[in-house]
Write a structure and sequence with these properties.
alpha+beta, 17 strands, 15 helices, six-stranded antiparallel beta sheet, about 25% strand, about 475 residues, Beta-Lactamase, elongated, 3 domains
């Protein structure tokens, strides 16, 4: 894609740092020299952007322009030098078709003009060194050459400032990068293609025991390799020298001769032309992680023994590869044929009963997010389509960054318990129904008894009244 020349010129002009900067003796000396050598009243170093021309240096300019140090482009001859990238030689602007309507003629008394392009080190024209006379003048070849020589001196000064600025920026950038590299908790080591150390950060000093001054200029293998593993280290270095990166676990050595496991990431470095110029390596101590892994392996071994004795299956889920290693006991529980290779987690979870799968997934993800253990009871569908109940317990294993790398756990068959629970529930439901039926029968019998008692009571009232009356007459006679 082509960049707009006006935009490119303005970017280049801004990069010089000269726009709107105060007058400087180095530039004023050159415009004074131009006036003296060419016998002109005015000489300018004019920097042209998209709206104005700014005078970095001005000799002999009348007010108010001398104080303003700029004019709009309507008053600029130098803009033509910038646009054409060629010297502009004008004997009498009043009769020049290109310039006769330019306001600099009336406002700045510009009649004769000689301008030479000023370029950046990237060959971008940003302005002009010009000589001006208020009277018509025929410029000679010597005049043009003299002003061209002075313009070259102006460009040399601009280039010097440009490179000084770039150098200062580069130094600041290097300083910042060095501070950042010294702040990281990892050893950062740079070498040339022969393995000679060219950079050794502060953490490398701490990790390997060599100071930066001691390490610089020495071969990195002599400082860090374990003698017994020299062949492996030489192979890694050879691959790096061919432009191949390497990363992995490596046993390395400290200054005092003690060794430790490190995770190492080595990469070749190329220049802008794609040529190999060096190697940069990052390493950090993984002793603590390896100790935990060893402890974990021992615990897993003991756990397997205990689980086999307790009729439990064990599984180990590698979250990075998404593969699950399962013991034979666990495979049998899940109804999976006994095979050596690990299984994809998706194929394992596909065996979970569809009604239980969402809840199981939620429990597992919550445990990983909160770094807690989990337990869950669920059903699996066997190849025979029979249902088996399993209980599962698991916990996550996390790396140095806190990211979960593995999850391990156990399963045990709870189908018998679940069947017994179901039978017990059915028995309870049967007993409850029988009690309810018996209660209903008793309530019905009670109602019938109450009805009988009422009827019997009503039917016996009349005979009782007669007996009572007869008894009363007998008492009255006797």
């Amino acid at each position: 894609m082509t960049i707009d020349p006006a935009i490119e010129r303005r970017q280049a002009l801004l990069a010089t740092g000269l726009l709107d900067s105060p007058p400087e003796a180095e530039f004023d000396r050159l415009t004074r020299l131009a006036c003296r050598l060419l016998h002109v009243p005015v000489s300018l170093i004019s920097l042209v952007d998209d709206q104005r021309q700014f005078f970095k240096s001005a000799q002999g300019l009348a007010e108010p322009w001398a104080s303003r140090r700029e004019t709009p482009l309507s008053h600029s001859f130098c803009k033509h030098v910038v646009l054409t990238d060629e010297p502009l030689v004008v004997s009498d602007a009043r009769i020049d078709a290109r310039l006769c309507e330019n306001l600099a003629i009336s406002d700045l008394q510009v009649v004769a003009y000689l301008g030479i392009p000023l370029r950046t080190p990237e060959h971008i024209v940003i302005g002009s060194l010009c000589a001006i006379d208020s009277q018509p003048r025929n410029w000679s070849e010597e005049d043009v050459q003299t002003l061209s020589d002075l313009a070259a001196m102006v460009m040399t000064e601009i280039a010097a400032r440009h490179y000084r600025g770039r150098g200062k920026s580069s130094l600041q950038r290097i300083k910042l990068q060095t501070e950042l590299l010294n702040a990281v908790e990892q050893a950062v080591i740079a070498t040339d293609l022969t393995g000679t150390v060219t950079y050794w950060n502060r953490f490398a000093e701490k990790l390997y025991g060599w100071t930066s001054n001691e390490a610089l200029g020495r071969n990195v293998l002599a400082l860090t390799q374990v003698p017994a593993l020299a062949d492996q280290a030489q192979t890694i270095m050879a691959n790096l020298q061919e432009g191949k990166s390497w990363r992995g676990e490596l046993l390395v050595q400290r200054r005092d001769g003690t060794s430790f496991p490190a995770y190492v990431m080595d990469s070749p470095v190329q220049n802008e032309q794609g040529e190999l110029i060096g190697i940069v390596g990052i390493s950090f101590d993984i002793s603590e992680r390896k100790a935990k892994e060893m402890e974990l392996d021992e615990n897993l071994h003991r756990l397997r023994l205990a689980l086999n004795a307790g009729n439990m299956g064990i599984w180990d889920w590698d979250l990075e590869s998404d593969r699950v290693h399962m013991s034979d006991k666990a495979l049998t529980m899940w109804g999976i044929s006994l095979r050596q290779e690990p299984h994809h987690a998706a194929s394992i979870f596909s065996l979970v009963h569809p009604e239980d799968l969402p809840a199981l997934n939620a429990v597992v993800q919550q445990a990983l997010a909160q770094r807690t253990d989990f337990s869950f009871e669920f059903r699996v569908v066997l190849p025979s389509q029979n249902i088996r109940w399993l209980a599962g317990k698991g916990l996550g294993i996390y790396d140095e960054t806190g990211k979960a790398s593995r999850m391990i756990g156990i399963n045990y068959d709870i189908t018998t318990r679940k069947v017994n629970e179901q039978l017990l529930q059915e028995v309870n439901e049967t007993l409850e129904q029988r009690v309810a039926d018996r209660t209903a029968d008793l309530e019905r019998s009670n109602r019938e008894l109450q009805e009988f008692a009422y009827v019997a009571s009503h039917d016996l009232q009349e005979p009782l009244r007669k007996i009572t009356a007869f008894a009363d007459r007998l008492r009255s006679r006797f």
